[in-house]
Amino acid sequence: MTHSHLRLLENESIHVLREVAAECRNPALLFSGGKDSIVLLRLAEKAFRPGRFPFPLVHIDTGHNFPEVIAFRDARAAELGERLVVGHLEDSIRKGRVRLRADDESRNKHQSVTLLDTIAEHGFDACIGGGRRDEEK
């Protein structure tokens, strides 16, 4: 990929972020602290700095994250001065909304329940997330 092609993709991404912010009443940016969402966060900085983001950062915590990732997530949100909303899968389990078949079962596939509950609780009308082309089917 050429430098100019990457610049074009970056500009398109920044445009999309600004359009979502302009067209939606209460959007949110999904931020887990992983590599995909770090790129998305950087694009949001380029789109909206030096002002504040027009949306909070949202993370759905499975309870099985590396402590270093959670610490990075929290530190980055604090460093930017942005609001961080965290939905906890443990809350969904406690409420009976998610039932694991085994204690060691992967929780990743159950995140959608907690995400939908978090969206409803906060009234988000759009969620901005990052996805890599190599992961798309």
List the total number of helices: 5
Overall average residue pLDDT: 92
Bin the strand percentage: 5-15%
Distance between the termini: 21 Å
Low-confidence stretches: none
Order of helices and strands: HEHEHEHHE
Major beta-sheet overview: 4 strands, parallel
Specify Rg, calculated over alpha carbons. Answer: 16 Å
Number of DSSP strands? Answer: 4
Structure description:
- The protein is an alpha/beta fold and 137 residues long.
- It is built from 5 helices and 4 strands.
- It has a 4-stranded parallel beta sheet with strand order 3-2-1-4, sandwiched between helices.
- Helix 2 links the parallel strand 1 and strand 2.
- The longest helix is centred in the N-terminal third of the chain and has 21 residues.
- It is globular and about 50 Å long.
- The relative contact order is 0.18.
- The mean pLDDT is 92.
